[in-house]
C-alpha cells in the first residue's frame, strides 16, 4: 500500500509518499511545497494542486491522507487552511484516490505515543520509525506522520478495527 500524505497550508505544505510492503514501511518522498509570501493566495492554490498532481503521477499512490482541521487561531487562518486543503483534496479526487483524514491528536498518538507531543518529538520519531538519515523539516515530518498513521489504520481495518474518516 502506498499513500500520499499532506499537511496542507497555503504557504508551506508538508507532503510525503510512504509505502508499506510486507510489514516494512518506507518513505519514497518527503518535502514541502513552499509558496513565497509575495505570491497571491490563488496562485498558491494552483501551485499546491499542480505539485500534488505531479507527485501522484510520479508515485501512483493508492490513497491520500490529510490532517483534519480541529482548531485554528482566526477566521482568516481557517479560510486559508480550508482553501489549501481544498486544492489538495481536488488533486487527489481528480485521480480517483480515496481520501482520509485524521485528527492531529490521533496522528501524534500513533507516532509518539501521546496526543500532546510537540513537532520536534514527531520529527524525531518519524526519523527513527522510517530509518531516515536526516530529520525532516517539521511540515514534512508531519506529513510523514500522517502517512504512517494511515498505514496503521489500514492494517487495523484488515484486522477488523475502525478506520480513519473518509472524505
TrEMBL record:
GO cellular component, one term: Holliday junction resolvase complex
EC class (word): hydrolase
Single GO biological process annotation from the record: DNA repair
Record key words, sorted: Cytoplasm, DNA damage, DNA recombination, DNA repair, DNA-binding, Endonuclease, Hydrolase, Magnesium, Metal-binding, Nuclease
Gene: ruvC
Pfam families, A to Z: RuvC
Assembly and interaction partners: Homodimer which binds Holliday junction (HJ) DNA. The HJ becomes 2-fold symmetrical on binding to RuvC with unstacked arms; it has a different conformation from HJ DNA in complex with RuvA. In the full resolvosome a probable DNA-RuvA(4)-RuvB(12)-RuvC(2) complex forms which resolves the HJ.
Family: Belongs to the RuvC family.
UniProt remark on cofactor binding: Binds 2 Mg(2+) ion per subunit.
Function: The RuvA-RuvB-RuvC complex processes Holliday junction (HJ) DNA during genetic recombination and DNA repair. Endonuclease that resolves HJ intermediates. Cleaves cruciform DNA by making single-stranded nicks across the HJ at symmetrical positions within the homologous arms, yielding a 5'-phosphate and a 3'-hydroxyl group; requires a central core of homology in the junction. The consensus cleavage sequence is 5'-(A/T)TT(C/G)-3'. Cleavage occurs on the 3'-side of the TT dinucleotide at the point of strand exchange.
Broad class of the protein's primary localization: cytoplasm
PANTHER family: CROSSOVER JUNCTION ENDODEOXYRIBONUCLEASE RUVC
Cofactors demanded by this protein: Mg(2+)
Compartments where found: Cytoplasm
Name this polypeptide is given: Crossover junction endodeoxyribonuclease RuvC
HAMAP family documented for this protein: RuvC
